[in-house]
Design brief:
alpha+beta, Double Stranded RNA Binding Domain, DNA polymerase, domain 1, 3 domains, 5-stranded mixed sheet, two-stranded antiparallel sheet, 10 helices, 7 strands, extended
């Protein structure tokens, strides 16, 4: 459920009002104070989109409200978004249903189009940036080359299984994740109405590769090497690698050697040492507070209220 807030009135400085919006902990819609149904939806990730909400047909509480995304904050100015919203809301009063019209117009003809809609409308606005990058890799490196041009409504289970086996020859874990991602894309397509209602999910229920958890502990030599690296990074810094070719990312590094050094602060060094000594998870250490630590007995843990 999105939080509802006020955005601005048309005679105010719109850009100032928008830049004053603080980061949110859950999806929040900032509604315009003058144009009813127009607002800005802000995600915890920082992604923001202009939206309109309306009740089609005769309206009233008995009619389910619909929401339509007009565009992203970085592609539409407040004035442009307001004018577009006013135009569409005026059409609603005359009996139009913009959301239904767009849904009908944006049917996913092939798998590539389905993946584009899934990434644009569901993944990028809702997932963390590193998750988005991971999923983009699944699409770019595996699904699109093999299945991108296939008709989305008629993609067969056998074609997905062949993709699973092909990827699994070198990386079974990635193969499992790619198929799970494709199944989620089809589920989204069915919910969003960009696939025909009778479309089956060709990636659902496919038997995946068995995964074996691996656990390895650092040797004494490796621990000593890691400890020395942390001390060096904390005291004098770690030098950047030299460019290893014309396409190397480090070719744009600062020219002076003294500027090509990364120095970590004492808190980061302490967190790394705690991770090594305790075997705790990353967030358990980064979110740790002093009232979680029992100084008499030694353990550090979350205390229940």
């Amino acid at each position: 459920m999105s939080t509802r807030e006020r955005l601005h009135a048309p005679d105010q400085d719109q850009q100032t009002s928008i830049t004053a919006i603080q980061p949110v902990g859950k999806p929040t819609i900032f509604y315009d104070t003058e144009l009813t149904g127009f607002g800005l939806k802000v995600q915890p990730s920082g992604a923001s989109s202009w939206i309109i909400e309306y009740r089609p047909g005769a309206g009233g509480r008995s009619v389910a409200a619909r929401r339509l995304v007009l565009g992203r904050l970085n592609t539409l100015t407040p004035d442009e978004a307001r004018k577009l919203a006013a135009s569409l809301l005026a059409k609603v009063k005359l009996g139009a249903d913009p959301a239904a019209e767009r849904s009908e117009a944006r049917k996913a003809e092939n798998v590539g189009e389905l993946l584009d809609l899934f990434m644009d409308n569901h993944i990028r606005p809702k997932r963390k940036p590193r998750t988005v990058v991971l999923f983009e890799g699944y699409v770019r490196n595996h699904i699109r080359p093999a299945l991108g041009r296939q008709k989305a409504p008629t993609l067969s289970r056998g074609e997905v299984e062949r993709l699973l086996r092909s990827i699994g020859q070198t990386n079974p874990v990635t193969a499992n994740r790619v198929v799970a991602f494709l199944a989620a894309a089809y589920s989204y397509g069915q919910r969003a109405g960009v696939l025909p209602k009778e479309t089956a999910n060709p990636a659902a229920g496919i038997e995946k590769f068995r995964e074996q958890a691996r656990e390895r502990f650092l040797t004494e030599a490796e621990l000593a090497c890691l400890g020395e690296a942390i001390r060096e990074a904390e005291a004098v810094g770690i030098s950047w690698p030299e460019p290893d070719g014309p396409n190397s990312k480090s070719k744009h590094a600062p020219k002076l050697p003294e500027n090509r050094v990364t120095l970590i602060n004492p808190y980061a060094a302490a967190a790394l040492r705690l991770l090594i000594f305790t075997g705790a998870r990353l967030r358990e250490i980064l979110d740790l507070k002093w009232d979680h630590v029992d100084l008499e007995r030694g353990p550090a843990r979350r205390r229940s209220c």
